[in-house]
Amino acid sequence: GAGVSQSPSNKVTEKGKDVELRCDPISGHTALYWYRQRLGQGLEFLIYFQGNSAPDKSGLPSDRFSAERTGESVSTLTIQRTQQEDSAVYLCASSLAWQTDTQYFGPGTRLTVL
Amino acid sequence: GESVGLHLPTLSVQEGDNSIINCAYSNSASDYFIWYKQESGKGPQFIIDIRSNMDKRQGQRVTVLLNKTVKHLSLQIAATQPGDSAVYFCAENSNGNKLVFGAGTILRVKS
Hints:
The complex is a heterodimer of chains A (114) and B (111). Chain A is built from no helices and ten strands. With 114 residues, chain A is mainly beta. In chain A, the strands form two sheets. In chain A, strands 2, 4, 5, 8, 9 and 10 form a six-stranded mixed sheet that branches. In chain A, strands 1-3-7-6 form a four-stranded antiparallel sheet, with no helix packed on it. Chain A is globular, with a radius of gyration of 13 Å. Chain A starts with a strand and ends with a strand. In chain B, a hairpin with a 5-residue loop joins strand 9 (86-93) and strand 10. Chain B is an all-beta fold and 111 residues long. Chain B contains no helices and eleven strands. In chain B, 0% of the residues lie in helices and 54% in strands. The chains are: A mainly beta (114), B mainly beta (111). Chains A and B meet through strand 4, strand 5 and strand 9 of A and strand 4, strand 5, strand 9 and strand 10 of B.
């Protein structure tokens, strides 16, 4: 079946602009995660959605970052007033439920802030 | 805070040899560990996982070893192939289903 998809694959924006990144999880997966990966580094957890529970936002680096999820489907990550340090690959993953279910990753969105 | 780290940032091996990628973790409460492979321009791909009640698990050409005494995790790849060239991340899943990733090890396979 289809895996996790993300759009756009690449986004170049100017400092101060807002950007919106989209994630379509695997159908039937109730858990959805966003991570940030800076060049040559590991993955940094941002936010986690599980069903109708309140999301775990503990990884969001500042209040310029927010995310929404519609039910158990698509999620959008919004970065307001982008800064150059926001440049990174933003990865989305989904899993069946939670806890120790395997997370399946999308290809990521490469964000470049000029 | 909690952290997962890797001993070697880059590993070069000859095609056909076995590869061993190491990882240290700091949270003794972690009960689940995962290895991911990330090829250039792609998202991480699940390779193998292991729970804390086990010390070894085998997959196809891969074996994960867990030593809880010294909080050490390793990934062994048998008969390494050029297609194995990638960045390998270990990750631990302790509280709240939050994966904590290590910095990654680059595996280069020489033909």
